[in-house]
């Protein structure tokens, strides 16, 4: 049996070539060639983690109290060919309801939360042909906490599904995964694109998200933010045409090829070019506007992108002034999507998503280059509150000025993730003020977060996707500074902390919030659910087993330092799982804190003595490595309890 194929090819070149350019006398050869390419493409291992081998398969496992003989286990659904098609479809629905946010639409481990956890979600294309259906059944049933001992610590975000899915549902999932990784493209690619071919490709590869009729109502839709595109409306956000106008064929082809960064829509560049063009032809039949456009003999008016001028400080200064006047109403003065008009625009439940956080250029849908930003400003984003900047009002130089300023709001690349965090030694009293200048001299560590989707109730599209952490100790105390972006703050916080909101600029009337529509209150009131963040540490150093990163378990408890916006305080919590928590006694609450909110970002300092007399506390010691993880709740979006953002374990060394 072949276990690894190494081929020296330039995948970028192959994927950019058109299938019709190849020899098509023998379609079987074409399919085999694509199969070879895709095997290489999807078999790239996930970094930093190796899947258990087939030899790691235990002889038996217990599922709901029953012993299961794994080596002899086969998928019983394959024994009934007449129902195989329906089981396969049901397995796909289950996958997109439960698995795709981590493992991705393409089953390659690159879902929305694909880079949020360690180890990363498995690239399911690595499963076959070296592993069988019984292996996949085992991994789904037992999850990350059921890995063999040699794969400790049990830090995996993979849930154990044995108490959530029926045995038949697990086998349906196995069937869908098997079929998907063995046939990552649609069989028999033709020479020329066609609507019929596009319909077939759409049905097999797109309908789970976009729905069978293209209305954006597939089984994955309710778990996605933003929702999948409704193709019957004929709109597309990323176009080279004017606001509200239909896209060109090339616009649609490019969107299919490159996907939509930061969403569940992957890049479909691995599909043969003929299939991508066939999809374009088919998608145009789902909406009436394309047919009317052709019947009236219209042609597209393409928005031109002039050559960018030199980047100058004078341009940035002009751009900042224009940004404050024209953009900060939605994006906020610091670009963190906390503008005043978001009160009118945003409703995650109805897919009215927040304006882009401009301090994170790696999340920009079109891209973060100056040309990308120019085109976005000139065309706007149809179906959103992002308008176009008309050439009749703003000159090209005006647009370049805004673009130049926006590029200063964000790093050009996503911050690197380091699993090891240093708590630096500091001589003197540790600061508790987030604005203390000493924090500007301390290394900042980027901790990615993903939605807690492992246990009910889940957070499918949480607000907070990362936290910036700094740590200091002086041999007696330890202090942490945490920063995280949140477009809204708990209103009651203004009574006990420094709060600076983005001011209201002169906005167009349609974006202004009618003051009479807001409840007039003499004093700010707290949110229904408070904003909150918690640092998590294991309790006790006697065990070599790291607690499960979701707040520990029965045998491995954790200590949480949880700041809550109302009341503005930190409580120390003892936990043995997500739903088994208890606060320390009031006399044992020893963490000091101070918080501030400024232009869409919380800044919090928590400080405590290294050691205490409470056995339920984490104890620190210079030279020691302590595991650390983070939980975050955005109360304004109804996050509470198990609905939250979470991180995997990191290692903190007290220098």
- The percent of residues in helical segments reads 10-25%
Q: What is the overall shape? A: flat
Number of helices: 16
Instruction: Determine the strand fraction and express it as a percent band.
Output: 5-15%
Distance between the termini: 50 Å
State the CATH class of the largest domain. Mainly Beta
CATH topology term of the largest domain: Immunoglobulin-like
Supply the CATH architecture of the largest domain: Sandwich
Count of individual beta strands: 17
Q: How many structural domains are formed by the residues?
A: 4
Query: Structural class per helix/strand content?
Result: alpha+beta
Which features does this protein show?
655 residues; alpha+beta; Cytochrome Bc1 Complex, Chain D, domain 2; 4 domains; 15-stranded mixed beta sheet; 17 strands; 24% helix; flat
Q: Could you walk me through the main structural features you see in this protein, from its secondary elements to its overall organization?
A:
The protein has 16 helices and 17 strands. It is α+β, with helices and mostly antiparallel strands. It has 4 domains: 45-182, Cytochrome Bc1 Complex, Chain D, domain 2; 195-290, Cytochrome c-like domain (Cytochrome Bc1 Complex, Chain D, domain 2); 313-409, Cytochrome c-like domain (Cytochrome Bc1 Complex, Chain D, domain 2); 420-513 and 521-654, Sandwich (Immunoglobulin-like). α3 crosses α6, α7 (195-205) crosses α10 (273-283) and α9 crosses α10.
């Amino acid at each position: 049996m072949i276990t690894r194929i190494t081929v020296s090819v330039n995948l970028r070149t192959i994927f950019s070539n058109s299938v019709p350019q190849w020899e098509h006398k023998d379609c079987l050869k074409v399919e085999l060639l694509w199969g070879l390419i895709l095997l290489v493409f999807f078999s790239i291992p996930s970094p930093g983690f190796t899947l258990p081998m087939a030899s790691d398969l235990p002889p038996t496992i217990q599922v709901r109290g029953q012993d299961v003989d794994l080596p002899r286990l086969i998928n019983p659904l394959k024994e009934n060919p007449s129902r195989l098609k329906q089981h396969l479809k049901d397995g796909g629905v289950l996958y997109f309801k439960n698995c795709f946010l981590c493992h991705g639409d393409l089953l390659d481990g690159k879902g929305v939360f694909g880079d949020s956890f360690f180890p990363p979600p498995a690239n399911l294309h690595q499963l076959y042909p070296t592993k069988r259906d019984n292996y996949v059944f085992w991994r789904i049933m037992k999850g990350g906490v059921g890995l063999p001992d040699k794969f400790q610590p049990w830090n995996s975000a993979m849930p154990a599904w044995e108490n959530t899915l029926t045995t038949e549902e697990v086998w349906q999932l196995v069937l869908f995964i098997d079929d998907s990784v063995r046939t990552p493209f649609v069989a028999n690619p033709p020479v020329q694109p066609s609507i019929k071919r596009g319909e077939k490709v759409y049905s097999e590869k797109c309908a789970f998200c976009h729905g069978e009729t293209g209305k954006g109502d597939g089984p994955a839709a309710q778990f996605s933010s933003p929702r999948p595109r409704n193709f019957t409306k004929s709109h597309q956000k990323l176009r080279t045409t004017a606001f509200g106008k239909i896209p060109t064929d090339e616009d649609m082809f490019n969107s299919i090829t490159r996907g939509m960064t930061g969403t569940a829509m992957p890049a479909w560049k691995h599909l043969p070019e003929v299939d991508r063009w066939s999809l374009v032809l088919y998608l145009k039949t789902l909406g009436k506007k394309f047919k009317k456009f052709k019947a009236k003999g219209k042609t597209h008016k393409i928005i031109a992108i002039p050559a960018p001028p030199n980047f100058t400080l004078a341009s940035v200064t002009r751009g900042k002034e224009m940004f404050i006047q024209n953009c900060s109403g939605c994006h906020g003065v610091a670009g963190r999507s906390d503008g005043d008009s978001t009160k009118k625009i945003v409703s995650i439940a109805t897919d009215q998503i927040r304006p882009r956080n401009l301090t994170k250029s790696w999340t920009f849908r079109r891209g973060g280059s100056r040309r990308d930003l120019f085109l976005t400003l000139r065309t706007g984003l149809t179906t959103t509150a992002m308008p176009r900047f008309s050439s009749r009002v703003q000159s090209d130089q005006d647009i370049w000025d805004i673009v130049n300023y926006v590029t200063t709001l964000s790093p050009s690349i996503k911050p690197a993730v380091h699993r090891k965090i240093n708590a630096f030694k500091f001589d003197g009293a540790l600061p508790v003020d987030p604005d203390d200048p000493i924090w500007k001299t301390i290394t900042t560590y980027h901790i990615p977060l993903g939605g807690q989707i492992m246990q009910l109730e889940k957070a499918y599209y949480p607000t907070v996707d990362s936290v910036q952490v700094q740590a200091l100790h002086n041999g007696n105390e330890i202090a942490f500074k945490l920063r995280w972006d949140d477009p809204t703050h708990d209103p009651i916080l203004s009574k006990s902390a420094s709060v600076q909101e983005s001011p209201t600029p002169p906005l167009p009337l349609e974006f202004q919030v009618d003051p009479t529509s807001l409840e007039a209150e003499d004093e700010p009131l707290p949110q229904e659910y408070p904003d909150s963040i918690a640092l998590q540490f294991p309790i006790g150093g006697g065990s070599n087993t790291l607690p499960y990163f979701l707040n520990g378990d029965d045998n491995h408890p954790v200590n949480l330092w949880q700041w809550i916006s109302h009341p503005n305080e930190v409580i120390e919590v003892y936990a043995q799982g997500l739903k088994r928590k208890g606060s320390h006694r009031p006399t044992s609450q020893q963490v000091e804190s101070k918080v501030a909110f400024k232009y869409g970002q919380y800044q919090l300092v928590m400080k405590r003595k290294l050691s205490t007399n409470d056995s339920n506390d984490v104890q620190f010691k210079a030279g020691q490595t302590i595991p650390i993880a983070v939980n975050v709740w955005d109360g304004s979006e109804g996050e509470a309890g198990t609905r939250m953002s979470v991180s995997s374990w990191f290692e903190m060394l007290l220098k």
